[in-house]
C-alpha cells in the first residue's frame, strides 16, 4: 500500500512554499515562489493556491494545511493581526479563500505554531510530547506543543515571546511599537539595531552574524548580549511552562545558540535542570511539514474551512 501524502503550505513575507509530505513527515516534493509584493492578499492567495494545485494530484483527497505569517483566529482561519511583511493581510479569510480556490477543506495555523508542530512530529522534538519552540528570524516568535498538539491560546496568539520584558531593552523599540521587549534585543532586527548603535554601520542581522564569525569584536559583543538575554528568558519560560525540551529555530538561531545555551544553563532552576535546549532540525521545511501535520489531524490547533460556492474569493 502506498504511503498517504498531504500538501502543506508555508505563506511567508518573502516566499511561499508548498510541500508534498508523507505520513512519516518526510518531504516528497515541493514547489516554491516569491510571495507577491503587489496585488495584496488576493495575489498572495492565488500564488499559494497555484503551488498547492501542482502537488494535489499526487496527494490524498483530504484537507490542505497552511502555516502563515500573522495571528490566526482559531475559530475561523482568518488573520486577526499581521505585520507589514504581508501588507493588507490582517482580516484575510485564508481558510475560506483557499478552500474555495482548491475545492477541498483547508486548515490554517500561524507559521511558528506550524513549525513547532512539524518539529514535534518529524524533527528535533519528535520524541517529546511537550515542547517549546522559539523562532529567531527578523522578528521573534514562539509556540508551545502540549501532548503533541499546539496550544494556540484563547485568541490564537499563544507563544508570543517577542513581547516579554527584557532587562537592558528599556530604550529599545520592539516591532510592536513599544519598548523594552525581548524582540528588540534577540532577533535579526535587534542584532542590526544594536550593531548600528555600536559601530554606526547599518547591516542586517545575518551580516552581523557573519561579521562575528569573522572576528569582528563589535559583532561578537552584540551576539553575546543578545544570546544571553534570550537564554535567560528561555530559562524563565521553562519554569513557567514546564516543557520537556526547548528548540531554537530560525535564521539567527545558529548564531545565538552558544551564548543562549550558556545563559540558559546558568539561569535554569534546579528542578528543570534536565530540560535541554537544542537546535531545531527541519530548517526551511518546518512550517510546511507542520502544516501538513495540521491537515492530517483536525485537533492540531488550526482553524478549518470547506469550500462553498457562494463564498467570495
TrEMBL record:
Gene3D superfamilies: 3.30.420.40. Pfam families: ROK. Belongs to the ROK (NagC/XylR) family. This is ROK family protein.
